[in-house]
Amino acid sequence: MYILSILSSLSNRDAELVLPGTESLLRLPTLFSVGVHDIPSLERTGNEGWAACTTDEIIATKNKLYDIIVDLPQAPAQKPRIRTSDGASIKASQRDVARYKLLHKELFKHRNASVDAYTDADAGEQEQEPLISHDEIAAKRAEDDYNETYDDSIVEPTTWSRLAYSGFMWWASAGEKDAMTTAERESDREIMGDLASYSQSIETAIIAYFHRLSSQLVQGLSQLLLEGDREDSDEDAEAVVIDRTELSHLGLDSWSEADRAFVQEFGSLWFGRGVEVRGREVDCCGLRVPIL
């Protein structure tokens, strides 16, 4: 719960950018462990946010008490399930999966650092160079470990428009990679950094990583709102229009309808402004393919 409280908070620098009066949103109060005896007090909290954990499944049936519940299974092979109070599943976007894969690789590298150090020392005594580099072996081990735990049931499926667009871009660019996808991966890699080389604990490194993701969203959207105000200086614009590229720069999945809805709600809740996401279309062999 302590970690959850830290992850759900904004830095002082980011907090200065959001709408005045949203102080209660900046850090969720942590109630730690709650049970059925706490239901009356939870009902009195009203619209104030909180985070807690429980082993009493009956609380999950009281859907007026919470907005989102995370179900942590006992079996280590199973993945956590996230759903709203009305039972709708919250799934990871395709970009979330790519970031998780990157995070998994970094954690795997950190977890096996001592083994790698021993292997390097042992290899130093050998005269002959290995046919496969140490980095390639480590990357393959991380990939195999990731594939063993991957569960596509908690991931948004690839949209038809993305598949069609990817196919069109592959055909139009003679098989070259999508420039936006490449840029997203480079941006996500830069924000991640090298967790294994972090001077403090790996837990602190992970918290710092998620704070950087939050800052990317808050500072990026704040900048877009300022730019929108300058362009509409002669009008009292209440909403800002962003496109697929700008949505990507906020760290969100430009193909995800859930991320599109999220940024609209986030702009309203934290900045008191409407956010409209607009895409475009490309003509592929006479077929209009929507982008976004």
Describe the secondary structure blueprint for this structure:
Layout: H1 2-7, H2 12-15, E1 30-33, H3 39-43, E2 51-53, E3 68-71, E4 81-84, H4 94-111, H5 113-123, H6 134-149, H7 160-172, H8 179-192, H9 202-231, E5 239-242, H10 244-249, H11 257-271, E6 274-277, E7 280-284, E8 287-291
Parallel strand pairs: 1-2, 5-6
Antiparallel strand pairs: 3-4, 7-8
Task: Label this structure with key terms.
8 strands; 11 helices; mainly alpha
Report on the architecture of this protein.
Helix 4 (94-111) crosses helix 6 and helix 4 packs parallel to helix 8 (179-192). The chain has 11 helices and 8 strands. It has a domain at 1-90. Strand 7 (280-284) and strand 8 form a beta hairpin. The model has no long low-confidence stretch (mean pLDDT 78). The longest helix is centred in the C-terminal third of the chain and has 30 residues, at 202-231. Helices cover 47% and strands 11% of the residues. The protein is mostly helical and 292 residues long. The chain has a two-stranded parallel sheet with strand order 1-2. It has a two-stranded antiparallel sheet with strand order 3-4. Strands 5-6 form a two-stranded parallel ribbon. It is globular. It has helices at residues 2-7, 12-15, 39-43, 94-111, 113-123, 134-149, 160-172, 179-192, 202-231, 244-249, 257-271; strands at residues 30-33, 51-53, 68-71, 81-84, 239-242, 274-277, 280-284, 287-291.
